[in-house]
Design brief:
The protein has six helices and six strands, in the order E-H-E-E-H-E-H-E-H-E-H-H. It has 233 residues and is an alpha/beta fold. It has one domain: von Willebrand factor, type A domain (Rossmann fold). The chain is globular. The mean pLDDT is 96.
Length: 233
Amino acid sequence: MANLNSKWVNLVFCIDKSGSMLGSESDIIGGFNRIIQEQKQHEDGKVTVSMYTFSTGVQRVYLGKDINEIYDLDYQVNGLTAMNDGIGRAIDEVGEWLHQKDLNGEELPGLTLFVVMTDGAENASTKYSLAQVKEMIKRQTEVYSWQFIYEGCDITSTKAADDLGFKFKTYSSKLNLGNNYDVVSCATKAYRNVATTGASLDVATLAFCSTLDEASTKNTKSYEEEIGTTLTA
């Protein structure tokens, strides 16, 4: 049985940097940096961060890096949207990293949160299909208890997230893109606040999921009010 450390949060970001994200660079960078700084302030426990970006191809920026070693994000947009390849590669590589730790008898994170942020539909993947990625998300959720959230920007339909089987999803305009990051930070802080009291992993995870659901729903409703319409399926 895996040795889970309830005070260890493993954050995985998979961020769209295709050409259509032009103009959102400062918000992407600012929102990410804000999450990092907020989590650094919580001194009890451990946070690791993996960062992947995708456009026409996929780039691994870092894997399993201690949050205290992370500083400002370097983010420049270009190309198409290989979202399936980005998600698929990140799941495979982060999963293998954790698997090797398990084989070595090392502890594993109590919570792995996988965050996908994008403003458009898949149009460039060559290695992973939608069906493959959907099955990968399902397996990591059901077998390893990973949590996944889809964060859409300037999107009026939930279809892309629904097609991939995301349980949690939230949306904002690019003008208020930082609100999507705030959803992640809020839920992560809720988990850590409970976990550091000595509560069980199940209790901490319940607090996380409840907060993530509430915050993501509130954020999406705010976005719908902003654009004057309800998101379609």
